[in-house]
Design goal:
Helix content is 11%, strand content 35%. The chain is mainly beta. The protein is globular.
Length: 439
């Protein structure tokens, strides 16, 4: 695992992306355009820390930048990991109006624009830890996280795929089920309640300056524009007969208005039918965990209902399993079809050593498009792939399994994957790309 506390300088959130948008063949859902979700998780207080995962479904647009503010409602139970550090901020200025040798009007600009002078300021900031390993933002040119409160109760995280300088990073092509970023946290207390303590992790919006997702051209995804009447109240502070010499604007309702101005203004807001935001929870259990392999619901024994729960979770990565450590029945800290097959066979089990084993849908080689539990790569997968790409067939359960040549160009599910699978099945072509555990 790689945990970062930087880079530590917030640049203006303006995306300057070069390159062409690559459109892949396949069906994409029209609504919603984005789903941003904090995945529910369960940890043990003896673990000392945990890792939040922010999930992203971008069904239409390529995401090349984002900003998001997360807040905890129980800072007495967990806090985000911070590192107070000193940073040097350099600001670049362009003079708009000169008066001889003096500048009387200036503008803050990007260092890549034309500028006349710069200033250097030293500040102490509360940098928050984050991890991009195996996430959709791995390889992005700029990712930063900070606590606005400076107390670890919140983290403001932002990223830009492609800055001005090369190399070009294209951003996140339309996909489902990917992890946007991971945020580590510290566990502060051992819960007294045997059922644990629940912490709500809230994605704060509005204001919009703390939540936005942008395409490669800097357009914010999911905005809606409404025109509404705005009423302003004015009082006159100096009269000359019946003529007012000085008007002063005041809040409505504070005094009687001498004059009222009604004008239409444009209000920008987030269309929550296009951008769905789902908060999450962290359940912190007391130190002693009952390790009973197969007891997914924690009722003390395992039955057929647990197998059905595990199969649903393996298919979709949700709903969350109450006792995920009991779902990892082969003890490899990963939850996938191997665990479901072993649970159905009745063992032998290996007790999980991880409090929060991760759902990893891809096993061995990619290519299991129909996501059968035995990980076979055959003509059935080819049929499903063709249907998805050309006739509006069902999307894959596991995107990584469907992206057969993940090192291909362009990335994503496209004709290159179809060609590779046909060659592998019928002409002795190369085997599909191996899966990367944890991604």
């Amino acid at each position: 695992m790689r945990v970062n506390f930087g880079p530590l300088r917030f640049f203006p959130f303006v995306l300057m992306i070069a390159g062409a948008l690559i459109v892949t063949t396949g069906s994409v859902a029209a609504q919603p355009e984005l789903v941003v979700e904090v995945l529910d998780m369960t940890v043990s207080s003896t673990d000392g820390e945990g890792m939040l995962t922010i999930k992203l479904d971008n069904n239409v647009d390529t995401v090349a930048g984002f900003a998001m503010w997360l807040m905890l409602d129980r800072p007495d139970v967990i806090t985000f990991q911070l590192d107070v550090t000193t940073v040097v901020d350099t600001s670049y200025w362009q003079c708009l109006t000169w008066s001889g040798p003096d500048c009387v009007e200036s503008l803050l600009v990007s260092p890549y624009d034309s500028w006349d002078w710069f200033t250097i300021d030293t500040n102490e900031i509360s940098a928050a830890a984050f991890d991009t390993t195996g996430t959709l933002t791995s390889g992005w040119q700029w990712v930063d996280a900070r606590s606005i409160s400076g107390m670890g109760t919140d983290v403001n995280v932002a990223g830009i795929a492609n800055m001005i300088s090369p190399p070009t990073v294209p951003g996140i092509y339309p996909q489902q089920g990917g992890s946007l970023i991971k945020i580590p946290f510290d566990i502060l207390a051992d819960p007294v309640d045997p059922e644990g303590e629940i912490v709500n992790v809230i994605i704060v919006y509005p204001p919009m300056d703390h939540f936005s997702f942008s395409d490669p051209w800097g357009n914010t995804i999911g905005l809606t524009y409404d025109t509404i009447p705005d009423t302003s109240c004015f009082i006159c502070t100096q009269w000359a007969g019946e003529e007012c010499l000085n008007w002063q604007r005041i809040p409505m309702g504070t005094e009687d208005c001498d004059s009222i101005l009604i004008e239409d203004i444009v209000v920008v807001s987030l269309d929550t039918s296009l951008v769905v935001i789902l908060d999450g929870t962290v359940t912190v259990l007391p130190g002693c965990l009952p390790i009973i392999p197969g007891d997914l619901d924690g009722d003390g024994f395992s039955d057929i209902s647990e197998l059905a729960m595990l199969v649903e979770y393996i298919h979709f990565g949700s709903p969350p399993i109450p006792c995920p450590w009991n779902a990892d029945v082969n003890g490899d800290c990963v939850i996938n079809w191997d665990d479901a097959n072993l649970l159905e066979e009745g063992g032998p089990y290996v007790e999980c050593t991880c409090v929060d084993p991760q759902w990893v849908c891809c096993r061995d080689l990619a290519g299991n498009f129909d996501y059968d539990r035995f990980d076979d790569v055959n003509v059935a997968d080819l049929t499903k792939l063709v249907a998805y790409m050309f006739t509006g067939g069902a999307p894959p359960y596991c995107y990584e399994e469907a992206d057969i040549d993940s090192a291909g160009d362009p990335p994503g599910i496209n004709v290159s994957d179809l060609t590779s699978l046909v060659a592998y099945l019928f002409t002795g072509g190369d085997a599909p790309t191996p899966c990367s555990i944890g991604e």
